[in-house]
Design brief:
Elements: E1 2-7, H1 11-15, E2 26-31, E3 41-45, E4 48-53, E5 62-66, E6 71-75, H2 81-84, E7 92-94, E8 105-107, H3 109-132, E9 137-140, H4 149-153, H5 157-177, E10 181-183, E11 190-191, E12 194-195, H6 212-226
Parallel strand pairs: 1-2, 1-6, 6-9, 7-8, 9-10
Antiparallel strand pairs: 3-4, 4-5, 11-12
Helix pairs in contact: 3-5
Length: 230
């Protein structure tokens, strides 16, 4: 079966384990900078959709043709780092945990969700269009923040974990509304809302990528999903 796995940099570790998909699947990886997937220009072409973007200076522009063949997996919309690492969380926190952080200014879930709604609108529209045109499209969840991320961004772990949880819950609900399934992160990679050191990037300056073992486990989840092809 043809398998197209496309999206942001979280796919690099998955691509290294492509052989885990087995010989019965013909896998194609299309990896580009996350910013190019935020709101790509879409043009109908050859029965599919061509996505273009050039939002990152000195980086390869996005220019890919997606076809409604086999099953497609998109990584990008469940990457929460742009929200969890915002400097605002040094002074603010979600209202639901404010009692544990009385020195921080509470922010309502609704305010955070409005931000997420605006930032993900184009990608949700993109995924909805693929669905409406007959694409068998799924989303790959990005890793939870790495355990070292709060220290790297000077944000309290409980605050970062709660922001991440609110973001993921909201985006997952939106994906469910448009009928897009999600390949969730392996539960064994997560503890206390964070990706553990065992499954984190070996680069100490990297706050959000998984390592090769993490990628292998995610590819196994994709393989299991492919076993349920109708």
């Amino acid at each position: 079966m043809k398998v197209t796995i496309f999206g942001d940099s979280h796919l690099h570790t998955l691509r290294n384990s492509a052989a885990e998909l087995g010989d019965e699947h013909e896998a194609r990886f299309l990896v580009n900078h996350a910013l190019n997937w935020i709101a790509p220009q879409l043009v109908a072409e050859k029965g599919g959709i061509r996505a273009r973007a050039d939002n990152v200076k000195n980086f390869t522009p996005l220019n890919v043709l997606l076809l409604p063949e086999g099953r497609l997996y998109f990584s990008g919309i469940l990457h929460t780092a742009p929200y969890t690492r915002a400097r605002d969380w040094r002074s603010f926190c979600p209202w639901s945990i404010q009692k544990d952080h009385p020195d921080l200014q509470p922010i309502s879930d609704a305010a955070l969700q409005t931000w997420i709604e605006r930032e993900t609108a184009a990608r949700l529209s993109f995924l909805f269009e693929l669905r409406s045109k007959g694409f068998d499209i799924c989303v790959i969840e990005a890793p939870r923040p790495l355990e070292r991320a709060p220290g790297m961004h000077d944000i309290r772990p409980a605050v970062m974990a709660r922001v991440d949880a609110i973001c993921r819950s909201f985006i997952l609900a939106r994906l469910a509304e448009i009928g897009v399934r999600v390949i969730e992160v392996p539960p064994e990679t997560v503890s206390g809302g964070f990706t553990t050191a065992e499954f984190s990037s070996g680069n100490p300056k990297d706050p959000h990528h998984g390592n090769l073992e993490y990628g292998r486990l995610m590819v196994q989840r994709i393989r299991d999903d492919l076993a349920n092809v109708a």
